[in-house]
Amino acid sequence: MFGLKYCVTTMNAGGVSPSADPVEGYIKGKLNMNYLKEIIAFEEWLERGYLSASSQLLWYKLMYRCNRLGWTEWVQVDNLRLMSDLHIDSKNTFLRARDALVEAGRVEVRKGKKCSPNQYRIIPFFPEEKKGSNFEPKTETTNGTRNGTTNGTHK
């Protein structure tokens, strides 16, 4: 798309191997994150300050990738892939969007080397969330209480 040739590897527990998706990968380590709660907190955080539309979209795209990869702590993504996701043609525009997220304290970046993409880490608003789906169905138990509640209150 941008006329540049690149190579990418994925880090996994066994070491470095070619990625099935040639521009993204994961680094060992898991986040405990509630996707919906983080999105709501991000929107509320935006109400108190300014972040460009490009920076906002980049945060959402990184959240999507973290979710897709099972909430690994660090996610490897090639700049060209992110630029494509954001529909940005200018590398400088992309770098300004990324740097604004870093400066705002919403993302950490480990810069990659040749043939190794940057690694991104979302800084969660609620870092100690317990694991579990935001969309777990509530089911009736044999004693008439709902899964996840006792007498109508949360455990």
What would you say this structure looks like, in words?
This protein is an alpha+beta fold and 155 residues long. It is built from four helices and eight strands. A hairpin with a 2-residue loop joins β7 and β8. The longest helix has 16 residues.
Quick structural overview:
Helix content is 32%, strand content 22%. It is α+β, with helices and mostly antiparallel strands and 155 residues long.
Topology:
Blueprint lengths: L8 E4 L2 E4 L5 E7 L4 H13 L5 H16 L3 E6 L1 H8 L4 H13 L3 E4 L7 E5 L26 E2 L2 E2 L1
Antiparallel strand pairs: 1-2, 3-4, 4-6, 5-6, 7-8
Helix pairs in contact: 2-4
Features:
8 strands; two-stranded antiparallel ribbon; single chain; about 160 residues; about 30% helix; alpha+beta; four-stranded antiparallel beta sheet; about 20% strand
